[in-house]
Amino acid sequence: MSDKLSCELSKHEYFEGERTMASGEDTELSVSEQVARSASVYAAELDPGVLQLTLMLYRTMSVFDRAHTAELSPHGLNLVQFNVISVLHRVGRPLTMGELAHAVSVRPANLTSVVDGLEKNSLVDRRLNPDDRRSFLVGLTPTGEEFLAGFLPGHWRYLQSLTSGLSPRQRKQLTTLLERLMRSVQEADAPAQPPVPAGPSTAAS
Known about the structure:
mainly alpha, Tscrpt_reg_MarR-type_CS, HTH_MarR-typ, 8% strand, Arc Repressor Mutant, subunit A, transcription
């Protein structure tokens, strides 16, 4: 096998490993083992610490999402829907679709179907914005408020159990670091795009 082909196969294994790790499917290959494998292929370009952090974020969020799904699915809700009604509850007033999309970090175009589902279940209502009739306001209904009043106390206890492996001081430190990381990601330059191949020449032969 040529060195070039061997390298390409190794790169394929790396990307497959990263995809699997992100989805939480791989329970045997540890983060450290994946980082070591990638470092052997991309030694010149790769900072192992950056990859280790990235994979741990993927894995943690995958586990966290599964825990929330297990809590919410008996109520017919997904995580985005729960975030929407939680934000409306905390803000205490109806929000425009744009405000709501920003608050839950969802594209406005993707929020419509989320609100449709919540409206169908009578948890939110949607009405024309009297200050701008080109937009809608979304607010909690009495049914939504009643659901949260019964659900949230147990939810807070569940969050406490999920983070019980960290001390209050560690949770505060982690929150600060994640805020810094979020700003770093938001401020990072967009990745360079590969050049677009030139089309076939139209010059006369």
